[in-house]
Structures are given as C-alpha cells and as structure tokens.
Amino acid sequence: MDTQNPSAPSRAPGRIPADVPRAGIVHENVRHQSHFTVVGNHLAQHRELSGLAIGLGVHIQSLPAGARVDVRTLAARFPEGTTRIAAALRELEAHGYLRRERHRTSDGRVRTRTVSCNRPGAPQDQPPNKPRQKPKAKPLTVPHPEHRPSPATLQAATDLLAGLHRADARLTLTRRDAERLAPGVVAWLERDLTPTAVRHALTRDLPEDRPVRSPAALLAHRLAALLPPGTAAFRTPPPAKDPTRHPLHNCDTCDRAYRGPEPGCCPDCRPASR
C-alpha cells in the first residue's frame, strides 16, 4: 500500500487564465442578492482618509436611517477607542461624508442630527421609487388675427410653416405645431407682408453651431416678438375739428335758430336769398 503524503496538496493548482494578473490581488466575486451596500470608490480608495475613517464611512453608509452613530455607540461596536473614532469622524466630516445639522424639536429642544453623504458635492436625488418629473412645457403664445381668417389663408400659413425645414432642417415642425402657429403667420400676412418676407424673418440669424431644441417655441417667440405694427399705425390721423363755437342767430328768412359767425340766413336759406 502506497504511503500518502499528508503535506501534499489535495489537487494540483489549476492554470491561471491569461486575463488574470500573475501578481497582486485576484477577485473572486459573487453577486449579492440582498443585504449589501453600494459604496463609491471615491470613499473606498480615498487617498487622504485613514483606514479607520474609510471603514467607519462604509459602516455608517450601511446603517438604516435612525441608527445612532455617536462616538460612544461606535466605540462600543469597534475595538478602537473613543479618541481614535472621534478623530476618524472628524476626517469624514472634513471631506464631506458626514454633516452635522442642528434642529429644533417640537418640544423646543435643540438637537444635533448627523447626515451621511454617499457622494459629497453631488446634487441630492429624489426619494426612491419616485420618478423624476419633467418640467411642464410652456404653452405656445402666438399673435392672432383680429378676425377669423378664411380656411385658404390658414392653409397658406400652415404650408409656409411646414416648409421652413427647407431653409433650415432644425425648424422641422409636426403637423399639430404648424396648425397651432398658423394664426400667428396670418397676423403677419394681414400686415401686407409677403410669404417670402415672413419666411425670412422666421429663419434669419439662427445660431449655426447649436441645435434648436424646440423649433415650435422658437418660432412662437419670433412670431410674437418680431410682429410688425399694423397698417393702422401708419395712417395719418384725421385733422382735429375746429373748436370754435359760433353764437346762435335767428334766420332772417325762416326765423330758425342757427349758429354762425354773423347774423343773416341759415345755411338752408342762403341759396334762396341770393
């Protein structure tokens, strides 16, 4: 019977795969399904924090809300004393991983609350399971004609808007947007502007190196802000009436009262008196 060597390995070591480094750490990871904490490498590999501070930071981030993280509670949990733990907490506070806030309770007492930040300097996220709400789009405000335009005029305005993409591809509109903006174009056309002039006003001086995120909003703004004045603004006002008020006289022919610069006949009787 062969003699067994108790110091020999039970099996020969396997060959190291080519993609595994031959020196340094080799990770044997198993995916966690529960009871785990996601910690950023900015904390786990922090170059200015001590090992105790990094360990306490990871431990604090794994605790549920409401857990006590004062020096005495942590000193009772870990073998380090209160002095070292207090110093490690000050390290975390100096680098933004902890924040102490004073607040007043309902009974009037002032207490200190410790806030753990898993990513210092980043904007705070919304509460979990609450989807981010998109900002409400502002309604398009466009000028409207003073009267109800004809269907042919509205169609011409819609066609003008629908064809703006030929001048600039960034001004491509949906059919619904073109119909909503059409009354604004009608207001321009009623001011004796040609479709070519309207098209030029809506497409000129657009930034060449930036995308147009909302072509409908851009066009609505231009239709309202660049709207030329109406023809009524160019009309010559009628001359003011003569404020002179003549005295009353009785007509020498019909004895009817009339106003005039001097006595005599009223305007109706003047031709007959000649």
Description:
The protein is 32% helix and 7% strand. It is mainly alpha-helical and 274 residues long.
List key phrases describing it.
Arc Repressor Mutant, subunit A, 274 residues, two-stranded antiparallel sheet, single chain, elongated, 4 strands
Specify the number of helices: 9
Poorly predicted parts: none
Number of strands: 4
Structural Rg:
43 Å
**Beta-sheet strand percentage?**
5-15%
Helix content bin: 25-40%
Q: Estimate the mean pLDDT confidence.
A: 81
Pairing-aware structural class of the strands and helices?
Answer: mainly alpha
N-to-C terminal Cα separation, in Å?
A: 166 Å
Estimate the global geometry from the Cα principal axes: elongated
The major pleated sheet works out as: 2 strands, antiparallel
Strand order of the largest sheet: 1-2
Helix-strand pattern = HHHHEEHHHHEEH
Question: How does the SSE layout of this entry go?
Answer:
Blueprint: H1 41-44, H2 51-62, H3 71-77, H4 82-94, E1 98-104, E2 110-116, H5 151-162, H6 175-189, H7 195-203, H8 215-225, E3 248-250, E4 257-259, H9 270-273
Antiparallel strand pairs: 1-2, 3-4
Helix pairs in contact: 2-4, 3-4, 5-6, 6-8
